[in-house]
Amino acid sequence: MHSWITTFGDHCTPQGRQAVRTDCKRTNPRDTIEPVPRVSQDQLDARRHEILSAARSCFARFGYEGATVRRLEDATGLSRGAIFHHFRDKESLFLAVAEDDAAAMVETVARNGLVQVMRDLLDRAGSSDGDTAGWLGSQLEVSRRLRTDPAFARRWAERSAAIATATRERLQRQREAGVLRDDVPVEVLTQFLELAYDGMVLHLATGRPAGELGKVLDLVEAAVRRS
Amino acid sequence: MHSWITTFGDHCTPQGRQAVRTDCKRTNPRDTIEPVPRVSQDQLDARRHEILSAARSCFARFGYEGATVRRLEDATGLSRGAIFHHFRDKESLFLAVAEDDAAAMVETVARNGLVQVMRDLLDRAGSSDGDTAGWLGSQLEVSRRLRTDPAFARRWAERSAAIATATRERLQRQREAGVLRDDVPVEVLTQFLELAYDGMVLHLATGRPAGELGKVLDLVEAAVRRS
Predict the structure, then answer these.
(1) What is the rounded CA–CA span in Å between residue A204 and residue A127?
(2) CB A164 within 8 A of CB B208
(3) Which residues of chain A have pLDDT under 50?
């Protein structure tokens, strides 16, 4: 019943927001027996993707606290009913954006390693798009909750664990291929790269200039390689 | 005139808070011509130090936003008048705690290097005192302002610059002593150590376990040394 109601809300969005149907009336859905148009999984996925992308910009621009439901409506062009049909609440929406990010990172890590993720981040932060620093900043904003809110921390940890696992597996493959230094355990090398990644996040989120970070990443990369 | 009023406020603190005199009455100080007891510079410095120490715990426990003026009064045992006699506002108080921290860091860096600062941080975070992660977390909380509030960013940057300079100077001395690798510019090595320090701050502030960070720091240290 819940999803039906929120789907209905999706269709009856206020003027100026993206409306799928404009001929519906604000009647209690429980009183009607008209069939609701079926939405394909592809359409749902596309909508979900649109919401995540717009929400990401909104969190980047206003921060976690500043991204109010009203601003999320404006950013996505959807009503709160439509947004929260897909995501239970703002926290779930934020975590979904972070999980989306993590999934992309896991792919890059598996293919090119965590240092490449850092290089990409540095490139994006240096380009005209101001979203990168903002989005990293909104992640710092929730750092207090990671220490004080166990449920939130658990959901965030799943995201971090996926990246750590991908990093560890790639390093293990590199060790087997003989390109990795073999005097330090893979686990230590994994945590070394994660430390550098965290440092990059804090550096860029606080709006500091890139400085020599490109060369610093060369040094990070060399430190895990067989010399 | 301003300082006189706030000194007066200091003496007439509510019951239960630390009161220097208890016989004064809440009259408008502008109407009185009684002499104010003179406070020596040593006493002012001691009071300033007490406030900073209590404020640090308060920021650590409640975060920057959560450390309200009321909570700062409770933590310091002083009235807001007394606190803001020494520090213009909450922002100045926060920056003063950070500057105090930075001054201690600069000393350790000059003597033992930035890696030692990280080792000390790791030790303190691992001990029973919960202040370390909290205080680092409150620094992350203001990260958004570092990107969006130029005046705040400027004051913070002075603090960071002092640490960077101390790091650079120590590395330069190590290079001259022949213990530092000589194939990478000192500036890149400085920023490499700062990246690791930032990573440590983010790691500890989010309450993650220390894991292999001790060994990771060995790796960081080895990466700047002549092999």
Answers:
(1) 12
(2) no
(3) 1-29
pLDDT at B129: 66
Rounded CA gap, B201 and A172, in Å?
27
For chain A, the residues whose C-beta falls within 8 A of a C-beta of chain B are 63, 133-134, 137, 140-141, 143-144, 146-148, 153, 184-185, 187-189, 191-192, 194-203, 205-208, 211-213, 215-216, 219-220, 222-223, 227
By CB atoms closer than 10 A (0-12, 13-18, 19+), residue A198 is buried
pLDDT digit string (tens) for B143-195? Answer: 888 988 999 999 999 889 999 999 999 999 999 999 999 999 999 999 999 99
Cβ B146–A207 below 8 Å, yes or no? yes
Q: Which residues contact B11 (CB under 8 A, 6 or more apart)?
A: B19, B20, B21, B24
Q: Would you give the DSSP letter of residue A31?
A: G
pLDDT at B14: 36
- CB < 8 Å to A195, chain B: 196, 199-200, 203, 213, 216, 220
ipTM of the prediction: 0.81
Between CA A82 and CA A85 the distance in angstroms is 5
Maximum Cα–Cα distance across chain A: 73
Count of C-beta atoms within a 10 Å radius of residue A178: 8
What pairs with residue B180 in β-bridges? Answer: B225
B16 pLDDT exceeds 90? no
Q: B188 vs A216: CB contact, 8 Å cut-off?
A: yes
> What b/e readout covers B16-45, taking b as 16+ CB neighbours within 10 angstroms?
eeebbeeeeeeeebeeeeeeeeeeeeeeee
CB-CB neighbors (< 8 A) of A153 in chain B: 207
Query: DSSP H helical segments within B67-148, as ranges?
Result: 69-76, 80-86, 90-112, 114-126, 131-141, 143-148
The string of pLDDT tens digits covering residues A120-147 is: 999 998 886 668 999 999 999 898 889 8
